[in-house]
Structures are given as structure tokens and as C-alpha cells.
Amino acid sequence: MTSRERVLSAFERKGYDRIPIKHEGTPEVNHMLMDHFGLKNMEQLLRVVGDDFRYVEPIYIGPELRTFPDGSVEGYWGERYKYAEFEGGKYLEALYLPFANVHSLEELDRSHFPSADWFDYSTIKEQAQAIGEEYAVCFGTAGDMDFINSIARARGTEQVLIDLITDDPVYLEIMDARFEFYYEMHRRVLEAADGMIDFTHIGEDLGTQRGQIINTEIFEKHFAPKFKKYFDMAHSYGARIMMHMCGCVRAFLSRLIELGLDVYDVVQPTTPEMDIAVLKRDFGDKLSFCGSVSVQTTIAFGEPEDVEREVNRRLELFPKGGLFLGPTHAIQVGSPLENILALYRCAGSLIEKIDQSILNIVEDKESVDKIDMSKLF
């Protein structure tokens, strides 16, 4: 099977030659893996671990995203990010929030609202044709839509949660603008791809470690109509929707299925009701899953045998499909190399003997470090 055949067959529960794989690691982890195998770029790494998905991207032609004297970089909404460093790595954090102290629509600076016109879509079909010969074709990121987490990077988390309770008009206007921006960008990509996008990718962190972050009434009022409109649009172009949701989001799954969600990414098993076997029992006939091997416990602090046990459990649970195997988020700094290798080796996707055809693949080395930024806007 090609990767695309494998993914689509697993999605349709028709079986596979090996379980589909979707890798995600921090730049530091990806560099560690590349150094281990003697690789030079991200495409080489994805082939070695057996990742079955590839992404198309429009070309950014919008206003310059500035870099400031303090080293911070500008996002699409005027927010700024700077690396917070810790032992062994670094992580981008928002340090300037342009909407933080805006309390009326008269104060709201809409010049910071981005436009789908900021992108050139002319190469999308060519990209999709090249990828689709072998891989499942995707577009989007976990930061697309993302009305709580990403607006918080421009307004503040506490303020956003208050906004949702009080129906704050400033937040609602930003939310509407964010939806229209990503809806139109995705629509134009899907139109340009001419039916060749297999999965679109969006996100919304609806859960904490232990439960839902908002109640179902707020979800129904502010989120459900937007997701329904987006899901219907993406389905009209023949795409399936993959939605990234951190935390315990079980309370929303039935409704998201009704609205049209196809794949739940990344399945964070932090409570008994979020166990992958329980989710499969209760939702697996209508929903596919992605991820599910914990970066907080098994991969970070277990032994290779623990990782293998978790992988084998999933192979038994999903013998015909319904799961794209991977970590529950980006594999984090400090995770043992042996555990990461065990994940992909046990899944049957790891290429341990690297041949020259992989080493000859050319790609911009900076793509490894680009991952941090791709989910922030």
C-alpha cells in the first residue's frame, strides 16, 4: 500500500498493511532523531518514522511579519512571540497581546485582522498532485480556527474565558473575524486543490486535563454554528475534517460527530473516560482517532516495553482501522530516544536501515524549526 491508500483504507475500516502513522515532535526532538539516523531535513525524518501524511501550503504574500529589537516576531493578528528558554529547549510564548485591554468595539483596532487575500493559492494543486501520488494530502494546522487558545494569545486566557461567559462583543467580533479568515483560506485551498485534499486540519482546545473547559451551552451558542458551517463546506469539496483537541473533551464528541467531525486528533488519555478503548467503544463506529500514545507519561517516563505495550494494545483495538497512531501532542524534550524508536518500531513503520534514496531527499533545513510557528497564528 502507498501511504495514502493505507490512510484512506484505515479511515474506511477496510484494513491496512500496517497502522497509519502521524508523527509530531518538538524541533529539539526532531533534531535528536535526525542526528541519530544521520538525516538532514524533516522530509527525510518523516520517511524514516513512517509518517503517512503530508501538507500543502499556500504562499504567504501579505504584509511583512516583523521581527522586533527584543527578538520577538509578529503573528497574523499583531500579537508577538518570543522564545522562552528552558533546560534542553525553547518554546514560543506570546509576550505582546494587542487586544488585551480592549473593552469596547470603538477601541478595537481591526487593522490587525488578517485576510485570506494574504496568500497565493496558485501552487496548491501542483503540491497536492505531487504529494497525492504517495501520501494522504492535508491542509491546515491545529491553530486554524482555535477560538479559545489562539485568541488568548492576543487577548489573554482569563479574559477570553470571561468573554465567553459574558458574550463580550469585542471577543465575539474577533472570533467572527478569525472564523471568516480561516474559513475563506480553507475554502480557497480546497477549491484550488480541485478535490485532491484528503483531510483538512483545524483545532480547538476544549478540555483541561480533567474535564471540559467550557460548558455545553457556551459551545452550542458560539462554537457549534461555526463548526457546522465549516464542516459542511469542507465536505462539499470531498475532504474529511481532522480536529485537534487537547484535554478531556468527551462531553463534546457526540455533538461534534453530529456536526460532521471525521477525525479526533490527538486523544489525550488523562482520565478513565478518555481511555482509547472506552472512546472506541462509545464513538468508534462514527469517529476516527489520531494520536493517543501519551507524551506526558508513557513516552516521556516509561520504558520501551511500556511503549510497546501501548502500541500493541492499539493494534488489537483497531485491526481494520479507525486510528492513526501517534503521540498525544508533540513529543517533548527529555523523552528517551529509545521510547520514540519503540513507538514506530512496534507500529511497523520505522526504517532503521537508511538507504541513499532517503539521504538524497533535499529540503530546507529550517523546516524542522518551522513547526513551532505553524500552530500559533
Walk me through the structure.
- By secondary structure, the chain is of the alpha/beta class.
- The chain has one domain: TIM Barrel, CATH 3.20.20.210.
- Helix content is 41%, strand content 16%.
- It contains 15 helices and twelve strands.
- The strands form three sheets. It has a seven-stranded parallel beta sheet. A three-stranded antiparallel beta sheet has the order 3-4-5, with no helix packed on it. A two-stranded antiparallel ribbon has the order 2-6.
- A hairpin with a 2-residue loop joins strand 4 and strand 5.
- It is globular and about 60 Å long.
- The model has no long low-confidence stretch (mean pLDDT 96).
Radius of gyration: 20 Å
Helix content, binned percent: 40-55%
Query: How many separate structural domains?
Result: 1
Shape: globular
Mean pLDDT: 96
Count of helices? Answer: 15
| Share in β-strands | 15-25%
Describe the largest sheet: 7 strands, parallel
Total number of beta strands: 12
CATH class: Alpha Beta
Q: Which CATH architecture?
A: Alpha-Beta Barrel
Order of strands in the sheet with most strands: 1-7-8-9-10-11-12
Separation of termini? 35 Å
Taken in chain order, the helices and strands follow as HHHEEEEEEHEHHHEHEHEHEHHEHHH
SS-derived structural category: alpha/beta
Unreliable runs? none
CATH topology: TIM Barrel
